[in-house]
Amino acid sequence: MPNIKSSKKSVKTDKIQTIANNDYLARVKNSIKKVEKAVKDKNVELANTELKTFISNIDKAYSKGLVKKNTCARQKSRLNKKVKEMAN
pLDDT (tens digit, 9 = 90+) per residue, 14-56? Predict the structure, then answer.
């Protein structure tokens, strides 16, 4: 346990920020699963709406520094490709 006052505060804020970060990452992972489930069920409308929410979720995670730039682009590209192939 830290002795310095600023370090004590830092531990508290780190805990809160970790919870928030985990929430953003959980949203990304859940939205990936929803898109893949819609693709598997061949539901075009649901897949498109879930893809839009996934893109906004992963962009928010990227803007907060939780996901790297190329990881964000790769995941968006792969899911977009799956949805387009399913639509054809």
Answer: 999 999 999 999 999 999 999 999 999 999 999 999 999 999 9
Residue 12 CA to residue 21 CA, distance in Å, equals 14
Q: How many domains does the chain have?
A: 1
The pTM for the full model equals 0.87
Measured from the Cβ of residue 48, the count of other Cβ atoms closer than 10 Å reads: 14
Residue 73, domain extent = 5-87
CATH number at residue 58: 1.20.58.110
Distance CA(59)–CA(11), nearest Å, equals 27
